[in-house]
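Sample entry follows:

:::
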Amino acid sequence: MERIDRDNILQATFWAMTQALERLGGAELALIDGNRAPPLPCRTETIIEGDCRSLSIAAASIVAKVTRDRIMIGHDTVYPQYGFARHKGYGTPFHHEALMRHGPSPLHRRSFAPVAAFFTR
């Protein structure tokens, strides 16, 4: 979250892609959901609406979502007042109410508009 706040979400995503490829030990091709790719040490192919047009991207999207949901459920045990197990960090009315009631937790991105507004009061 600190990287997103510092660099922006696109640059943080590009950084994560680079890190993932380095940890894999290389690849011949990276399929990227979207219209922009970072400079990677392999060939890249951007695919707009890639999760609808590529089985590989769709599968990766599901794995990422399930992993994120599990992480958020774990955070719920540390910060139960926010209901992370319920909304998984998405901007639901319940989540916004919890934010207004308890203020941001260390997990909340400071650059996210509802959280940033909390600090400019």
